Amino acid sequence: MRLDRIHHAAIIASDYARSRRFYVEVLGLAVVREVHRAARDSYKLDLALPDGSQIELFSFPAPPPRPSYPEACGLRHLAFETPDLDEAVRELGSKGIAVEPIRVDEHTGRRFTFFADPDGLPLELYEAGEG
């Protein structure tokens, strides 16, 4: 088997319009396509990052809450690489998004921090390294 990269991560939002605004307007992800699936009373929004990886943002009627934060079984968090962590943190702050203090990965020496999407899903900013 050959796996080349992650194609997409799927997220279910409790409030589709609020999460759509967050991922498109706050994080600046590009809309690839958006469809309403009437039979499921559900939206599906495909969002792209510059490298081609995607996030699928879904809405479903009355989804169950996340069991615990942040150590629920399953996906722990979604990490985005950024070339300038300080600038990304400043931009999030200017948009009213709370960001945790910057930390340093003890194994790689790279800087990172966490913030949350509108449903409390942990999101990480991981600063790109040289090379």
Describe it for me?
The protein has 131 residues and is an alpha/beta fold. The strands form two sheets. A four-stranded mixed beta sheet has the order 1-4-3-2, with helices on one face. Strands 5-8-7-6 form a four-stranded mixed beta sheet, with helices on one face. It has helices at 16-26, 85-94, and strands at residues 8-13, 30-37, 42-48, 54-59, 78-82, 103-104, 111-116, 122-127. The chain has two domains: 1-63, 2,3-Dihydroxybiphenyl 1,2-Dioxygenase, domain 1 (Roll), CATH 3.10.180.10; 75-131, 2,3-Dihydroxybiphenyl 1,2-Dioxygenase, domain 1 (Roll), CATH 3.10.180. 16% of the residues lie in helices and 35% in strands.
Element layout with pairings:
Blueprint: E1 8-13, H1 16-26, E2 30-37, E3 42-48, E4 54-59, E5 78-82, H2 85-94, E6 103-104, E7 111-116, E8 122-127
Parallel strand pairs: 1-4, 5-8
Antiparallel strand pairs: 2-3, 3-4, 6-7, 7-8
